[in-house]
Design goal:
The complex is a heterodimer of chains A (356) and B (530).
Chain A: H1 2-12, H2 21-63, H3 73-77, E1 80-88, E2 91-96, H4 97-106, E3 115-122, H5 125-156, H6 161-174, H7 178-192, H8 199-224, H9 227-235, H10 240-269, H11 272-275, H12 304-313, H13 319-353
Antiparallel strand pairs in A: 1-2, 1-3
Helix pairs in contact in A: 2-13, 5-8, 5-10, 6-8, 7-8, 8-10, 9-10, 10-13, 12-13
Chain B: H1 2-54, H2 56-70, H3 73-106, H4 111-117, H5 119-131, H6 133-168, H7 172-177, H8 185-215, H9 223-252, H10 263-270, E1 274-275, E2 283-284, H11 287-318, H12 321-334, H13 339-359, H14 377-401, H15 405-413, H16 418-429, H17 431-446, H18 450-455, H19 479-486, H20 495-529
Antiparallel strand pairs in B: 1-2
Helix pairs in contact in B: 1-20, 2-10, 2-20, 3-5, 3-6, 3-9, 5-8, 6-8, 8-9, 11-14, 11-17, 12-14, 13-14, 14-17, 15-16, 17-20, 19-20
The chains are: A mainly alpha (356), B mainly alpha (530).
């Protein structure tokens, strides 16, 4: 024992009790390496924080105002309009579509020669509504199918060949690019089923896209429920379904929903799958302005991510368009981030709390 | 008496209830099982529908290529290629002039002096570009002939297809009524052929003119421009030397030579051009898109791998627990940033920053700086790295955490320090997990649409690799981007439409292959760790 102590001391220190040069060098190298790892990590965090900050600062100018009620209500509650820019009495004026017509009606004898900028006036209300509709519908669909198949995989299946194939299919489905889902939705729902560009087609496309994530998350939550709960219930004579309904699902449900919120963020954030299945660049009616109730399912909607794509690529970048671009991006980012944040916080909390 | 009668009744009832219950249980089981199969069904449907919509493409492409040959478009293109080569030489001459001009300005000449200095070069350039005029004229003369023949042949093919359709439908009398127009291609072909002699004459005068010009070329002052001018002269000499070969090609060209069946496929997989909605001839070659996708992914991975893996090592091995609790959710949180917002940020901020940076003085030693386009491979790649980092980080961190504790303890017991343990034990032990994380990150990047659509510049061209790394600062178009951009405007059922589905199919196959490789590697890793 003493002998061991001796050798250890010898290897670390020389006579003066200072680290040997070899030790010192390797410690310096370790330091440098650790610092570079640390720097890389913080570089990622800084870069993302800068993105958040930039969009927040510039977007807040559109969404918030300095006068009460401090929120730019028209931007959040109106439809997108074309902006008219013209000179009037030596001053440059920019008005939205309706305002410009009213203005023209007041000055019937003048010709303003306005230049127009598409989408740059008004607000983004229809886009918010459309995104909400898409998210709700597709999540209902994905949760129904996803939880059911997770129940089958975790409660009923035994490790057989067919189950392995199902698992491989789920894994591979998770890796399919979103644009391929868009093509698939276009080919199957829009063309083959003749649903045209519609909410229904968007629901199915988005729902099937998040399905693998929902299945994986739900299965994990189901498996976290201790086996004893099932065995106790079965021993009392309950059937399999009774056991699942009364003793497994209630305990797994919080976990399932928490993990599924991240799926909501993904559904809300995707643009490519809805580009040719559900989204319109501009539509005058709101989704509830339909003649028959069945038409509701077969109408295309405006969606926030698609709107951002349109305003950032189809119209020029200048002082008149910037506020709508940043405003839309900001609102969208806040919505998606809030959803994601809820999921992350809930998961962190459940990680600490749930221990069987 | 009553009791005795009711006992079997109860038993029967019980029996029946039991049966119903068992059936319900069975039904529920099958319901869940059916839902579990949805994943397979969807995967199969994706494959089927991509094939269904894309399948007609190869046949149509082959027909289009055959028409290209029989109508003589191919013949005209042989001459056109020569004329275009000349035009591109003129363009590079202009670039040299620009370089010389800026060199003059740098030597504190004012604008007029510099222009005066350049007068001989300008004259040289003008006579160079004028020399090609006759060739251009020849091409535009032939254009109409070939185009007319192509249209006639195409409309005849349509009539034939219509008759075949009627015949198949059993309506023989209606089919017989359709008269197939006679297209006399031989007249046009003869006319085209006759131009070979003209081409020979034109090209030899062109060659003579160019050689004459080369001998009396003006001198330049800037060394950089001189160097470019030298290599340009060599290119001109090469060009002059290839003119007779073009004449040979014209002579052996034969409209009746069959186009082999595999050309429909190989022209798609290896074609260098993606040209659609052209008045002349559409080309559907996936190569520029594939190269674009790969270049963008390469840049993205170049950034994402070191940063993602370093962050994973830092969080799992080095960071304090309190740090870890913050960093881990934050990086996972990044994956929720919508790609369209990142793309918008790229257009609004990153592109401009990169261009400004490339114009800065202290980076002027890099040969391809300043860059001309703010939206290019690099811009898109940097932003995509941000999308790949969460994937690579999360999975690598998992792999590192799953290395058995004993490995680490054994390493410490042998006297290794933390860095040595990380580098020699932990990373090698989790290497397959990290590699599969990188592969999945690659799959994420190559399938990403909005960032590349907004930030990659959308120019359908294979970047010019002669500039070396400069290729990474040129705009490209990608497979995902082209689908997103053109799918909305394309005529349903046209060859272009089918081609886009084919591109989707290729993309689908690539991601499946990447996924498969990642899974295989992980499986192996599980076995080796035990």
């Amino acid at each position: 024992m003493t002998n061991f102590q001796m050798t250890k001391d010898e290897s670390i220190t020389n006579d003066e009790g200072r680290p040997s040069s070899f030790r010192r060098r390797s410690r310096v190298i370790e330091r440098i390496a650790f610092w570079s790892f640390r720097l890389a990590t913080y570089a990622i965090i800084l870069a993302t924080s800068y993105i958040f900050l930039d969009i927040t600062v510039k977007g807040a100018r559109t969404v918030f105002t300095t006068t009460p009620p401090f929120i730019n209500v028209p931007f959040l509650t109106e439809k997108p309009e074309t902006l008219y820019v013209f000179d009037y009495q030596g001053k440059q004026k920019s008005l939205g579509d309706r305002e410009f017509r009213a203005f023209q009606a007041q000055h019937p004898n003048e010709d303003f020669h306005p230049s127009t900028v598409a989408y740059s006036a008004g607000g983004i209300w229809p886009c918010i509504v459309g995104t909400a509709l898409l998210v709700v519908g597709s999540m209902v669909l994905a949760l129904l199918i996803g939880i059911s198949s997770a129940i089958y995989l975790s409660e009923y299946s035994r490790d057989s060949r067919s189950i392995r194939i199902i698992r491989i299919a789920i894994l591979n489905l998770a890796g399919v690019p979103s644009i391929v889902f868009g093509l698939f939705g276009f080919g199957l729902f829009v063309i083959f089923f003749h649903w045209n560009v519609s909410l229904l087609a968007g629901w199915f496309t988005l729902g099937l896209m998040v399905l693998p994530a929902i299945i994986t998350a739900s299965e994990e939550a189901l498996r976290a429920v201790p086996q004893g709960l099932r065995e106790g219930s079965l021993a009392l004579g309950a059937t399999k379904w009774q056991t699942i309904r009364k003793n497994v699902l209630p305990y797994a449900l919080p976990g399932i929903l928490t993990a599924s919120i991240l799926g909501i963020a993904r559904v809300a954030g995707e643009t490519a799958p809805i580009m040719f299945t559900a989204a319109y660049a501009l539509r005058d009616e709101m989704p509830w302005q339909v003649q028959r109730w069945t038409d509701f399912f077969f109408q295309g909607v405006m969606a926030l991510p698609y709107h951002i794509y349109v305003v950032s690529s189809k119209i020029p970048q200048n002082e008149f368009t910037e506020h709508v671009q940043y405003g839309a991006a900001f609102v969208f980012l806040v919505l998606v981030m809030l959803i994601a944040l809820t999921s992350v916080v809930l998961r962190e909390r459940s990680r600490n709390r749930l221990s069987w | 008496m009553e009791l005795a009668a009711s006992a079997p009744m109860v038993e029967l009832d019980e029996h029946r209830r039991h049966r119903i219950r068992r059936l319900t249980e069975q039904g529920i089981r099958y319901f869940f099982g059916g839902n579990a199969v949805v994943a397979i069904v969807v995967l199969a449907l994706i494959t089927i529908f991509l094939f269904r919509e894309g399948f007609g493409f190869f046949g149509e492409n082959l027909r289009s290529l055959r028409l290209y040959r029989t109508s003589g478009l191919e013949y005209v293109d042989i001459i056109r290629t020569q004329s275009e080569k000349h035009a591109s030489l003129t363009r590079s001459l202009n670039r040299i002039r620009l370089k010389e001009f800026s060199a003059q300005l740098e030597r504190r000449r004012n604008n007029e002096q510099a222009q005066a200095e350049l007068a001989p070069l300008d004259q040289f350039a003008t006579s160079f570009s004028d020399a090609g005029e006759e060739l251009n004229g020849l091409v535009s003369d032939l254009n109409d002939d070939a185009m007319g023949l192509k249209e006639a042949l195409a409309s005849r093919d349509e009539v034939v297809a219509e008759r075949d359709r009627l015949t198949r439908a059993g309506d023989a009398s209606a089919a017989a009524k359709i008269a197939i127009p006679v297209v006399d291609s031989s007249a046009t072909v003869t006319r085209l052929r006759a131009s070979a002699a003209t081409f020979r004459l034109t090209s030899s005068t062109l060659a003579a003119k160019l050689s004459g010009l080369l001998n009396s070329s003006p001198g330049l002052t800037s060394p950089a421009a001189q160097k470019l001018f030298q290599s340009w002269k060599k290119q001109v000499r090469d060009y002059v030397a290839t003119l007779p070969t073009a004449y040979q090609e014209l002579n052996i060209w034969d409209p009746a030579r069959p186009v082999p069946w595999y050309r429909g496929i190989s022209a798609f997989l290896f074609g260098r051009d993606w040209i659609t909605a052209s008045f002349w001839q559409d080309w559907y070659g996936i190569r520029p898109l594939l190269v674009g996708s790969i270049l963008v992914s390469a840049v993205a991975l170049l950034f994402a791998i070191p940063f993602g893996v370093a962050a994973a090592i830092y969080v799992s091995e080095i960071a304090r627990p309190s740090e870890k609790r913050l960093i881990k959710p934050y990086i996972e949180f990044i994956s929720a940033i919508p790609s369209v917002v990142l793309g918008f940020f790229g257009i609004a901020v990153v592109g401009e920053v990169i261009r400004r940076l490339s114009q800065s003085h202290w980076l002027s030693w890099i040969s391809f700086f300043p860059i001309s386009e703010r939206l290019n491979v690099f811009t898109a790649g940097v932003l995509l790295a941000l999308m790949a980092i969460p994937t690579i980080f999360t999975l690598s961190e998992d792999a590192l955490r799953n290395v058995p504790r004993g490995f680490k303890e054994a390493s410490y017991a042998l006297g290794a320090n933390r860095l040595q343990t990380i580098a020699r034990v932990l990373v090698p032990a989790s290497l397959s997990g990290i590699i599969s994380a990188i592969l999945l990150g690659f799959g994420r990047v190559i399938g990403e649409t909005m960032v590349v659509l907004l930030c990659a510049g959308n120019r359908i061209e294979i970047p010019d690799f002669s500039e070396g790394l400069g290729a990474f600062f040129q705009p490209v178009h990608t497979m995902t981007g082209i689908i997103a951009q053109e799918m909305g405007e394309v005529v349903r059922g046209s060859i272009h439409y089918h081609a886009l589905f084919m591109v989707g199919l290729v993309l689908f196959m690539i991601t499946l292959a990447i996924n498969y490789a990642a899974q295989k590697i992980v499986q192996r890793y599980r076995m080796s760790i035990g």
